[in-house]
Amino acid sequence: MRKKILKLRQNDVSDDSANEFCVNDDNENDGDNEIDDGNENDTDDDIPTDRRHHLSRTLVQNKTDIGYPDVGVDDYIYENDVKESIENMASFEVPSVFLKQGMLLLKISHKSKKRILFKVDPSNFKFVYKQTSKSKTYEFLVDDIRSIMARENANIYREEFGISKEFERRWITVVFFNHHKNKLKTLNLIADTSRDLKKLLFVIEGFKKLKDNISETLLVNLGDLDEVEKTIVSGKAESTIKQPKKQLSLSDVLKFSKRLNVNVNTDFLEGLYHSVRSDNKTGIDFKEFKNFVKLLKKREDISPIWKSLTKGKEFMYLEDFISFVTEIQGECYDLEKASRIFRRFSSNEDSSAWQEEDWTAFLLSKYSNPLIEEHMDDSYFKHPLNEYYILSSHNTYLIGRQVAGDSSVEGYMKALHKGCRCLEIDIWNNQSDPEAEPIVNHGRTFTNGISLPSVLKAIKKYAFVASPFPVILSLEIHCSNTAQLKVVKLLQEILGDALVQEPINSESTLPNPDKLKYRFLVKVKKSTPFSAIGVDETGKLVSSSTTASFSESNDNFSSKSSLKLRRKSTNNIIDTLSDLGIYVQGTKFRNFSLPESKTFNHCFSLSEKSANSMIKDDGKRNALDKHNRKFLMRVYPSKIRLKSSNFIPMNYWAHGVQMVATNWQTYDLGQQLNESFFAGSYGYVLKPHYLRHALLKSTMRRTDIYGAQKIKFCIDIISAQQLPKPTNSAAINPFIIVEIIGANSVTWDRSSTVGATPIVAGNGHNPCWNSRYAGVAESDHHFMFLRITVHSSTSATTVDDTKEICTLLVKFSSMKQGYRYYPLNDPCGERLLYSTIFMKVNWCTVK
């Protein structure tokens, strides 16, 4: 293989005499390994907006499933090391190179490779970088970091750019949220030496740990004001500081609050400051500062609830706790478990009673997880595949718009980390090199392509991180017969024994997920016509041919848009590739009564337009419901959704469609519903009983009545905690909008709040609403959701020029009763570590 040359312009390197840049490691000789230069335009790479990596050296949340993690502050762990105490972190030192001129690094993107200077602004917990030859700077905050991967843990990124393995030891990828573009961005960097990479990792990880520790404790546990002054208040991070301040001025405290995203108006903070300052002082010492923090942490929303529960008493005793968790929280604790938990959170010496702080700590812990864990006994995953909803992605390779977005392995990584079990791979000829492996992209649009081997390697690596159950690879084949042979070879070589290449038994029925753990299924259209399919004496699937061949897609309508989309490919599928579709054979829908509609392993793929047309027709809708009780179906978004928006998936789940594929790069209502529906499910949700078993002919015309129930609910929106301030806004004035999604009808109580809560002016730290939303909904509780969106108004008194700042969407049947903290997501679907909604939930079905 020929070596790739990196040719950089003279002003892109630190040595003006150099015309080429070669990255050399300490005590290593890399020879002339160099990299091809690309387009000179310096642009960052967009990456999907809703992803969750299993990352090396990054703060992650300890979770018991792939749904909502525990909210408690004691449940955050550092993946490589036990989290250092915040007292030790207070002496964190930044190498001087990051404070002065900045560290020289090579920034890699799809369109360019540029020399940059990377600096640290410790006073604002900020990272700043700029191209060496330009003055424009780019920056991101420590809190914006979503993941850090380095060396071999970042190989997927390095290989996507075609960078030699010899640069592995100097590679780092930082994923952060870009507030200006309202999306996640990736920063791929190569250090000059492995020693430089160690320094860079130390600084990024160190600042992230420090900030996260401080945010958790709000400095209450910091024991040395001098050290705090070094690292936080003064804005300096070098150990050379000799004379730290002994007192903090009002300006210092306001800066500190801003750096920690304590979004409260200045007048309130100034009032707290003066209330703890001694009259004869010009500032506050550390003891007074701790009192300031204690007042700041005081929860006006908690105290009234505590007093109500304890009937005005100072303490809560064990019998009170048992009454609380069983009658209000709806938990099933026996005496032994209740006693053990009570002792764990009691701060009294003899553990005989709780104070208000103990009760608050319990509510923030994993013992108050807001979601019901799905009851999955030994039989849950032992039903045929057609009896499950399967978490599915459309155009998985895209990380932008459908027509002009980028293709990247990142799309597969983020989908798999979210538990996706059906991935789409569009495979085309490599036009630049017909002898090379096929590529994956969106065909004749303005999207770039990625190599099929890179895609398959990423899928193999991350397929079973979030779930052990089978992954379905939905292949859309648009390449030549020669390229198809390469596709087969790559599938076999890369996926190995995990690829299902023959039936696992002699039964003419779909296997269950449990029997297919850690396996890959291929979904591909049949090369030969269908009439009847069975299993021969050797266990191999066989068929006889009676009809013309089919195209997998049923998307027959045309777009009125002036932008011409790619034409439907007419490539025939070779037998060798088609034979890999053991249990999921793509079949063009023609009629539910034809023979191909009865084969146990066929799968119809319908566009949303085709599916909607069937649902509107009584006869077709009944046939659709009947088909999906026994056989597989996939529904995908219309190709005229040029911005990759999503439909409402419940419309198809309600009719038993197993694979409802959404655009994961767009975190709109459709994708929010998709993620919430599958939270904690490992990517497979067993369909309701009434959608899995045959109906009597006498009831076939009334399938819509099955599952409908009356649900009485009462949701008290009490408060929120640590809300992020909108970008480019001087203040935050939050209010909340509550919606019931998926109900046939909602009748609100007369005393209920409807729509939006009042605005809480200038307080994102702990805004309180105490707004009650109560009523009766008629719905199938499997498909009914609570949606809460937090907005900020530019006006403190009226709703004006609002911005959505975070969201919560949760399935009603997953919500536990009682007082619970629910974690919030930002507008891109990323979990906000410390932002929560505190509310009381009650709901039940009524006759």
From TrEMBL:
Known EC number: 3.1.4.11
InterPro entries the UniProt entry points to: C2_dom (IPR000008), C2_domain_sf (IPR035892), EF-hand-dom_pair (IPR011992), PH-like_dom_sf (IPR011993), PI-PLC_fam (IPR001192), PLC-like_Pdiesterase_TIM-brl (IPR017946), Plc1_PH (IPR037755), PLC_EF-hand-like (IPR015359)
Compositionally biased tracts (Acidic residues): 13-47
The protein's enzyme class: hydrolase
CDD domains: C2_PLC_like (cd00275), EFh_ScPlc1p_like (cd16207), PH_PLC_fungal (cd13360), PI-PLC1c_yeast (cd08598)
Protein keywords: Hydrolase, Lipid degradation, Lipid metabolism, Transducer
C2 domain location: 691-826
Region named Disordered: 1-55
SMART domains referenced in this protein's UniProt entry, alphabetically: C2, PLCXc, PLCYc
Gene Ontology BP terms: lipid catabolic process; phosphatidylinositol-mediated signaling; release of sequestered calcium ion into cytosol
Gene3D superfamilies cross-referenced by the UniProt entry: C2 domain, EF-hand, Phosphatidylinositol (PI) phosphodiesterase, Pleckstrin-homology domain (PH domain)/Phosphotyrosine-binding domain (PTB)
Catalytic activity: a 1,2-diacyl-sn-glycero-3-phospho-(1D-myo-inositol-4,5-bisphosphate) + H2O = 1D-myo-inositol 1,4,5-trisphosphate + a 1,2-diacyl-sn-glycerol + H(+)
GO molecular function, one term: phosphatidylinositol-4,5-bisphosphate phospholipase C activity
PANTHER family in alphabetical order: 1-PHOSPHATIDYLINOSITOL 4,5-BISPHOSPHATE PHOSPHODIESTERASE BETA-4, PHOSPHOINOSITIDE-SPECIFIC PHOSPHOLIPASE C FAMILY PROTEIN
Reported function: The production of the second messenger molecules diacylglycerol (DAG) and inositol 1,4,5-trisphosphate (IP3) is mediated by activated phosphatidylinositol-specific phospholipase C enzymes.
Name this protein carries in UniProt: Phosphoinositide phospholipase C
